[in-house]
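Retro notes
What went well: the complex prediction finally ran end to end.
Inputs used:
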Amino acid sequence: MKMSESQKVKIKARNVTVHYGEARALHGIDLDLNANEVTALIGPSGCGKSTFLRCINRMNDVIDGCRVGGTVSIDEQNIYSDAVDVVELRARVGMVFQKPNPFPKSIYDNVAYGPRIHGMAPSRSELDHIVETSLKRAGLWDEVKDRLSASGTSLSGGQQQRLCIARAIAVNPDIVLMDEPCSALDPIATAVIEELMEELRRDYTIVIVTHSMQQAARISQRTAYFHLGDLVEHGQTQAIFTNPENQQTEAYISGKIG
Amino acid sequence: MSISFLFLCLLGLGAFSFLFGRRRIRGLTAMTGVKQHSRDVYHGSFVVICAVLLPLIILLAWSGLSPLLIDAMLEDFLRRQSPDLSIGEMGVLIAKVKAYFVGSLPEAFADELIRNGADYFAALVDYSTTARSFVVLLLSLCGAALGLRLLAPRFTARPAVERVFEIVMIVASAIAILTTIGIVLSLIFETLRFFDTVPVMEFLFGLSWSPQIAIREDQVGGSGSFGAIPLFAGTMMITFIAMLVAVPIGLMSAVYLSEYANPKLRGIAKPGIEILAGIPTVVYGFFAALMVAPFLRDSGAEIGLTLSSESALAAGLVMGIMIIPFISSLSDDVINAVPQTLRDGAAALGATQSETICQVVLPAALPGIVSAILLAMSRAIGETMIVVMAAGVAANLTANPFESVTTVTVQIVMLLVGDQEFDSAKTLAAFALGLVLFFITLLLNVLALYVVNRFKEQYD
């Protein structure tokens, strides 16, 4: 795989292994993810792509019996070293989940939650500003600006997911992880979020897990194909989809397996 | 034929009906070759219902009503023999006749009238039992025959059986509801009688409670006073102290169990806490009276406080311990029901565990927690044993938790122990207090339901 000089490596994973109890979910993954790109992680269910995603913000820490080996570095800093505080790490690496999970609070409080716990906005007007810009960047502002005090759970599924994206970018992270963010949404809401990702790419590094080949092909610059806990192939999305090197990859993306 | 034997006969008939019904429908289907509408088991059940349901109802009704009828006939018989007995004497005579009939009245005490009555009574009972057996068994056989005749491959046995099951369920729930209504009605009627002697206003707002009614006219303090405010105040104070103990401890242990404890520890600790709910309240009561109250009195004396040996504080503290499991167990359940995705969402934003709990998990679980607290509160209000033993029975109107107070439930007990006429104001006051108590706990439960429904978030 060739990499042009202009692209900066943001996340560097080396020999990452994950065990759930006795079962090994990832067998030594080496993968570089570039800044300001969308990287899609694809593969059949249970292949370890979500597990790998959750290694990047150490969300696996909260699962009982889960052990992570190897190193994941963000900007050359190993996030699994003792010097790294998980709370700070997660403020830098935002995450959007498969199912929209707005807090049972108002729309405003949902977005303001992160800035509040990190003390990012000392005054109310600054907080208002953060909430407004985050909602605007998530493409939700026009729909909710008149009812910011309504409950976040009262929104539609697509709106809830954009609210969760606004909530994630409100803390101004470097990286946004998305775990099948559109799997619970209809095609129109999906299109809105895909457009949004293209927008967000300018400021953030985006890693997305998806089951939709078309989605991976549409939105990502790079694609990594996982199978049974191994990274089978990765590279430019166009190359992977038009001319995959590995037979397994070809079988999967052409719909023969998976 | 005794009722239990008759019952067994019905059961046997039912079992046979099932087997016959099933065999008959199989035979009919094989013979005609028509596809059956319902499965064999429904045809069998249908015949069972035909054979058993109506006879069972008649059996129960007969057993309930025939003693009343027999008593009335016996009274009529005795009245004809000796027309000038008073109602009281007649009652005694009937009791004697029945005693003689079962053999518990010695021969020497029985006169001609009693012997005649007993013979008549025996004849009636005998006649009634024979007729009952005959009617029930005949009906059962006829029912089974009718049911069997109705069977046919296209006969819709399944809907009929389902319908009967539904009716049985409706009857079961109706019994529960009707019982409640009956209790409330009897409370209301007796309370109204109480308010004939004591004005409502005096009862609800009077400040003095001393329900001593004179047995003789000239006794001291004969009139009694029925101002229930001291009781309400005492109830409120003890409940308040109990909640002060139970809410923080219960809530924090619930949070610990559901959010921090590992599954193994949780598996031990949760049943451990729930054991508290299994301790009989009378044990709590003497624990409060014999251990906690003296301890409080002595340690109060150390720092110069005067505590009476029966104090609201002791009762409240122990009651608080008692209701911890209600709060912790229910809250633990609702906290566990908060979706893990919310915790993940907060964690992914960089929230610490305590921030996640206080700002996301607890607010989401709040309706359930509030209803847990309200349920625990109605439990505390209705608690009696601990208060009788630890807080005393003196109706003091005081805001000092170190003094002895009493509660509504304790006074109900005090009113009803000992000998008094059933229709004295003292006895009736218990119904009035019971009604008030009922309304308070009803209000709390309704409030709990309202809170849960109003503020419940829909997670799918």
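What we learned: Chain B has two domains: 3-155, 225-455.
What to try next: split runs per interface for comparison.
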